[in-house]
Design a protein that fits this description.
There is one protein chain. The chain is α+β, with helices and mostly antiparallel strands. Helix content is 15%, strand content 32%. The chain has 6 helices and 28 strands.
């Protein structure tokens, strides 16, 4: 106890030297609620074609453009402090109609035994963050007195997040003197409300009409033939099972892409234009099992969320990023995809499991733009960022589908990495990517 008291006094002395502006990097969280939950509410939204927010010039052959990270929501300012002295111990952040809420900390400085929870009000989804102020005193003092950009907590699914500070018994009677410690939330990311989604869709449709006047079509080619992944559960169980290896990415709080497990090890793949560095990966959530419970329904299962971790390889020309995740054991149950390392064949039938516009996983397998009604390879040597790097198709995709796997229906293996819209849409051929990453798988 004398050793602990001395450490506390040392910290107090250090705090007296300067004001804490941003303390302690947020430690990675661990779920405090486990298991499979009942389906969470999904806001009913009519599925329509949504244009992409990010455009680039078409490649030399074909009218294509990369589908960038789709906008998922908005940032809201917040100046909320939960602390030890004269401040509240809980705060509720609610944005009616939003499909997720995600808080950002500039400070998380807690004593051992104290912790923070971020949860849905009913407790069905909860994360715990432990303070480690007294572990490594020198590093702690530097963290307390230094500048920091802060960090994001894992999101809470739904429109409300309850942030609560839990204090251990104050056996030493010192917590009351540590006014500089506590938790500060400076901003909140949250999903669009139904009204905001409708306004965004209206603006996107207008942009689509403007593009059509120039002879360019949207990434949904003709009618939108995508369907919820669960619609294939009985009609094509292999296709449905493969979709389980696909995940929604929530990047830096408000941007969306798609990723998927490649092989049995801790390896996932998305596009280079989604993120490129381990620092960006550390602010990226990876949502598995974000799927509808019923075909055409509005209930989704509670996703299993993990953090992206390390970028292992990335390349702009072939538009891929290979990365790992924290807590790999939590997502192993969803399986993985294998690579079909060969040139695609013209007319080969395809399907694309994806998270278009951040929606629960959908599959594009049929298309009214193809004569036979099934997605298929239009050109196996199509120009992407370079000559003949891609395979093209009319499978329907949208913003947020970037990084999706393109699978052959003959082998149920990945033959391309989707990245371009434009009708035809296209993906980077996996045989070209494999030459660069095969040794890392």
């Amino acid at each position: 106890m004398r050793r602990t008291l001395a450490m506390v006094l040392g910290v107090c002395t250090a705090l007296a030297v300067g004001t804490a502006t941003a303390a302690e990097v947020l430690h990675r969280d661990t779920p405090s609620v486990g298991g499979v939950a009942a389906p969470a509410s999904r806001v009913p939204v009519k599925k329509e074609a949504v244009t992409t927010a990010q455009r680039e010039q078409p490649a030399p052959r074909g009218q294509v453009w990369p589908v960038g990270a789709e906008e998922a929501g908005k940032l809201e300012a917040a100046q909320t402090t939960l602390g030890y002295v004269g401040t509240r111990k809980a705060a509720t952040f609610r944005y009616p109609g939003a499909d997720y809420v995600k808080v950002h900390f500039t400070r998380l400085a807690l004593l051992p035994g104290d912790y923070l929870t971020i949860a849905k009000p009913d407790g069905s989804e909860s994360r715990r963050y432990d303070g480690k102020l007294l572990e490594g005193l020198g590093d702690t003092v530097n963290g307390l007195l230094g500048e920091s950009a802060g960090t994001w907590a894992m999101s809470v699914t739904g429109d409300t997040a309850l942030v609560r500070l839990h204090l251990a018994d104050d056996l030493l009677g010192v917590r009351g003197s540590l006014a500089e410690l506590g938790v500060t939330v400076d901003r909140v990311a949250r999903g669009f409300t139904p009204a905001e989604r409708a306004a965004k869709r209206k603006a996107d449709d207008q942009r689509k009409r403007e593009l059509a006047r120039d002879g360019r079509e949207e990434s949904v080619c003709g009618g939108d033939d995508k369907a919820d992944a669960v619609c294939y559960k009985t009609t094509d169980p292999v296709m449905y099972r493969q979709s389980k290896a696909v995940a929604r990415l929530l990047i830096n709080g408000t941007e969306l892409c798609t990723a998927w497990r490649v092989g049995p090890n801790n390896r996932l793949m998305t596009n280079h234009h989604c993120f490129t560095t381990s620092e960006e990966a550390a602010e990226t959530e990876v949502w598995f099992n974000y799927q509808c419970a019923k075909c055409g329904g509005y209930d989704v299962f509670r996703p299993t969320k993990v953090w992206a971790a390390q970028v292992l390889a990335t390349d702009k020309r072939l538009d891929y990023t290979l990365f790992s995740v924290d807590d790999f054991a939590a997502i192993q149950q969803y399986g993985y995809l294998q690579l079909d390392v060969r040139a695609p064949a013209k007319g080969e039938q395809l399907y694309i499991p994806q998270n278009p516009s951040g929606e629960p996983t959908m599959i594009a397998a049929s298309n009214d733009a193809d004569r036979q009604g099934n997605c298929q390879v239009v050109d196996p040597a199509y120009d992407g960022y370079d000559t003949d790097t891609d395979a093209s198709y009319y499978c329907d995709t949208e913003g947020g589908s970037s990084g999706s796997p393109v699978l052959s229906r003959a082998t149920n293996k990945v033959i391309a990495l989707h990245h371009f819209g434009g009708c035809p849409n296209s993906g980077v051929r996996i045989d070209q990517i494999y030459q660069a990453i095969g040794r890392l798988l």
